[in-house]
Amino acid sequence: MTRAGVDERISSAALELLRTRGPAAVSVESVSAHSGVAKTTIYRRFENRDQLLTAAVTAATHPIDLPEGLSAKDTVRWALRHARDMIENVVGRGALAAVMADADPVFRDVLLGMIRASIGPLRHDLRAEVADGELRADLDIELVLSVLMGAVIAEMIRGRPTDDDWVESVLGLLWPGLSGRA
To answer: What is the Cβ-side half-sphere exposure of residue 34, based on CA atoms within 13 angstroms?
Structure first.
């Protein structure tokens, strides 16, 4: 197997453990068992669990690729779906629980760094929508981002689905307070 293939198996195993069981479940030993990659091979790449966890989260982190030409309302809809997908498919409930409990400060910092790095384009687009009058002029963009992510997190904590019908319900609730058009 190529080095890239081994790295992918390590990263995939670490992310799966993170999503399903939280950051405390990610260790060199557990990733080795889950991936089938020898511990010695993992230790050649990472000095410790924190480096392994950081590398896995970083590998899964990409600046968002916001589609061009969306209306302001479609941008907010897209942001809700993106937040849902990132939390469900990258972070997972186990990691979310650990962050909420502040059980792993290293992971918390890695996750916050991931969020900051990935939402820059969305923040920029929302500011442009404010400047264009599509969103309210007095809108606090950071608060909007927190509300969008918080809505997804709250539903996951409650065990409720965050499907597209839910996205539309949240958008219907929030849009009157966001819109710059009367």
So the answer is: 21
CA 28, distance to chain mean position in Å, is: 23
- The dihedral built from the CA positions of residue 64, 65, 69 and 70, taken in this order, carries a sign that is negative
Q: Show Cβ contacts of residue 40 under 8 Å, excluding neighbours closer than 6 positions.
A: none
- Kindly tell me the burial class for residue 122, based on how many C-beta atoms sit within 10 Å of its own C-beta (0-12, 13-18, 19 or more): buried
Per-residue pLDDT reduced to its tens digit, 108-135: 888 888 777 778 888 999 999 999 999 9
- Is the pLDDT higher at 100 or at 142? 142
The phi, psi pair for 158, rounded to 5°, reads -75, -10
Torsion of CA 22, 23, 29, 34, to 10 degrees: 40
Q: What are phi and psi of 166, to 5 degrees?
A: -65, -45
Q: Convert the chain into a string of H (helix), E (strand) and C (coil).
A: CCHHHHHHHHHHHHHHHHHHHCHHHCCHHHHHHHHCCCHHHHHHHCCCHHHHHHHHHHHCCCCCCCCCCCCHHHHHHHHHHHHHHHHHHHHHHHHHHHHHCCCCHHHHHHHHHHHHHHCHHHHHHHHHHHHCCCECCCCCHHHHHHHHHHHHHHHHHHCCCCCHHHHHHHHHHHHHHHECCC
